[in-house]
Amino acid sequence: xxxxxxxxxxxxxxxxxxxxxxxxxxxxxxxxxxxxxxxxxxxxxxxxxxxxxxxxxxxxxxxxxxxxxxxxxxxxxxxxxxxxxxxxxxxxxxxxxxxxxxxxxxxxxxxxxxxxxxxxxxxxxxxxxxxxxxxxxxxxxxxxx
Amino acid sequence: xxxxxxxxxxxxxxxxxxxxxxxxxxxxxxxxxxxxxxxxxxxxxxxxxxxxxxxxxxxxxxxxxxxxxxxxxxxxxxxxxxxxxxxxxxxxxxxxxxxxxxxxxxxxxxxxxxxxxxxxxxxxxxxxxxxxxxxxxxxxxxxxxxxxxxxxxxxxxxxxxxxxxxxxxxxxxxxxxxxxxxxxxxxxxxxxxxxxxxxxxxxxxxxxxxxxxxxxxxxxxxxxxxxxxxxxxxxxxxxxxxxxxxxxxxxxxxxxxxxxxxxxxxxxxxxxxxxxxxxxxxxxxxxxxxxxxxxxxxxxxxxxxxxxxxxxxxxxxxxxxxxxxxxxxxxxxxxxxxxxxxxxxxxxxxxxxxxxxxxxxxxxxxxxxxxxxxxxxxxxxxxxxxxxxxxxxxxxxxxxxxxxxxxxxxxxxxxxxxxxxxxxxxxxxxxxxxxxxxxxxxxxxxxxxxxxxxxxxxxxxxxxxxxxxxxxxxxxxxxxxxxxxxxxxxxxxxxxxxxxxxxxxxxxxxxxxxxxxxxxxxxxxxxxxxxxxxxxxxxxxxxxxxxxxxxxxxxxxxxxxxxxxxxxxxxxxxxxxxxxxxxxxxxxxxxxxxxxxxxxxxxxxxxxxxxxxxxxxxxxxxxxxxxxxxxxxxxxxxxxxxxxxxxxxxx
Lengths: 145, 651
Prior knowledge:
Strand order of the largest sheet of chain A: 2-1-3-4
Number of strands of chain B: 32
Distance between the termini of chain A: 44 Å
Largest sheet of chain B: 5 strands, parallel
Shape of chain A: globular
Strand order of the largest sheet of chain B: 8-7-6-16-27
Oligomer: heterodimer
Order of helices and strands of chain A: EHEHEHEH
Structural class of chain A: alpha/beta
Radius of gyration of chain B: 31 Å
Helix content of chain B: 25-40%
Shape of chain B: globular
Strand content of chain A: 15-25%
Number of strands of chain A: 4
C-alpha cells in the first residue's frame, strides 16, 4: 500500500459540505460506491433539504475553524421538496455579499447542485473546492469576530 | 431530571471494505474515550443478524439509550439499525449513523492514516449529535379505503381497472368530456392493428359497469388537503348541459351555429359547440362546449329549440363533490407538440400535417387525403423529431419513430407506387418487435435520409413543396418535390401540468414531467407520500409502457390501503413559542402550506405547524430568523454540535 507522507507544514484546507438527503448526499455516496477518490479535507453533514441550511451553520463553521463551506443540493427544478434548493441558493448568494463585509473571500462558500447519479460531479466539486481554498490559504479570523 | 446519556458505538469492518483502509481498533478506542460513550465495539458485519443482536443485547444489558453505528451510508442501513433499536425498546430516532465507508474508506484508499482520522471525526460528530438526540413520537393514520385516479387516458383506465378488480372503491376523474385520452384517437395501433378507440373501450366497457367505480368526466380536482392515508379532495364537475341520451341529437347538431377546430381530430376538421367527441366516446351522450357556445354572449339557444327544453338546459350549474381518499394516482398524460406556424411549412400549406393528424386521416379503412387535395401522391415525406431532441426539448419522444414506420407501411399498401421518404435525425425503434417495423419499412422501399441537428431539412411550401435535405451519410444535398409532408411530432408535458403539480405538491423536471421520488428505486412513487404516477405524465411513453407503469403505480398505491394504517413523517418541524415573533417568514417559505399563525391565550401570535401537512424538509427552520422554528432530528443545536465536533476537541 502506498502511503503518501504529506509535508506537515503544508496548509491542508478544512472544509465542511452540507448535503441534502436526496440528491447530493446520494451523489457523494455514489462517488464512494464507484470507488472514486477525493482528498480527505471535506467532511459531510446531512440535512433533509438544502433549504434547511441556515446562514448560522455557515458562520459557525467558519468560526469553528473551517476554511471553506460547500452547500450542495438537488439540481434546480429537481428538489425533492419542490424548491428548497432555490431558497438555499438565494441564501448562499446573499451570504457571499455578507462575507465581503466580514473580509471573508466569497469563494469560501460554494453552492452546487449534484444529482444522485453524479458521483463524478461530487468528486470534481470537492477537488476544486480544496484547490480553491488551498490557494486562498487558511481563514484567519481576528479574535472577537 | 435528565437521564444519563449512555451511548454505544459500533464500528463496522464491513468484511474488509472498511477495515482494509481504516484502523478499526484505533476508531473503537477513540470512541471509547468520548464523553457519554459507555461501550464501543466492532463487528465484522454490523448489519448481519449477530451484529444487530449485539446492539439489541447491549441496549438491554448496558442500559444504552443512544446508538451510533459507524458503518456504511445511512441510505443503506439506517432503517436496519433503527429497527434493531426498536426491537430492544429504544426509539428509532435515538440511532445515529457515521458514514465511514462511502465517505472515508472507499474514497481515501490511498491514505489510510487520513481515512482513519476522518472516520474518527465522523464518529466524534455522530456522538456529538447522539448526545442531543430525542425520541420522536411516531403517529399512525388510518388509511381511507378509496383510491383516486386523476386522468382518464389509457394509464388512468388501467389503474382504475386494476384497483377495481382488487375490489377497491375507485374514483376516476377526467378533465375532458370523454375517457380514452390520445390513445382513443389513434387510427390503428401498432402490432395489434386494432383502433385506439376500440382498445380503450376494452377498459371502459369493463369499469363502466362496476359498482365500485365512479367515473367523473368534465371534472377537475380543485383542492387536495389532508395527508398520507387521508387526503380530502374537492372535485368540480362541469355540466354537460345535455340530459342523458337525447332522441334527436342530429337536430341539435344541425341547429348549432358555432364551428370550432375539432381537437378530437387534431384540428383537421371542425365541430359544433354541441357535439359528441367521437362515435365510441364514453359517456356516449352529447355535450355542449360552453367555451365555444355563444349562449352567454348572444343568448343563442337554437339547440334547445331544436331538441327541446326537456333535453337541454343551458343554465345547468356546476356541481362539486368532496371526498376522502387513501392514495392518489396521477395519470394526467401529455400534449402532442404543436408545431409553430411555418415550422417545416406547418399551417402555411395544408399538405403539411402532423403525425397525430395523420392518425386521424388513417383512422378509417379508406385513407382520406382527398380533402387536402392529395389524390395520387408521388412523394410523401416524413420528418422525424419535430419538437423533440432539440434544444428546447432534449427528450426523445420514444413513440414517433415506430408510429411513423407503422403509418408508412400502411400508406405503402394504399399507394404502392409512391416514393416514401423518412428524413430522420435518429431512428429509435427500441422496443420489442419494433425493429421489425423498421425492417419492414426498409423492405417496402421507404427511403431513409439522415440529417444532423445542426442542419435540419427545409421546406418550401410554394410550388412543388420542395424539401431540401443535406443527407449527412452521403454528404449530398437532395431536393424532394413532395405531395404530402408528415411532421413526426413528439410529446410535451400536459398544458396545465403546473396546476396539478401545485395541487399535489409534486416536483417537476425543468421540462415539466412529473418527477418520481427516486429515479431507480422508486420509479412510480412521488415525494408526497401516498401519491403515485403512471403513463405519460412522467415521461414520453408508448401505450404499452403507459399501461405497465399505471399497473405498477396501482400496485404501489394499494399497499398503504391494504396495510390499513400508515406512519406519518416523524422528523417534523415545530415552533418554540417562547422565541417566535410571528414574523411569518416560515409561512411563505413552506412549500406545503403547513404553517399558520395562531393566537396564544396571552394574546401573542405565533407560528404553528400542521403536523399532517409537514413533509419534514426543514426549509422553514432554515429561514427562521429567531431559531423558533426547529426540525426534529435536525435541530439547530444538533447541527451546531456536529459543526463544533468537526475539529478535535470541539465537541
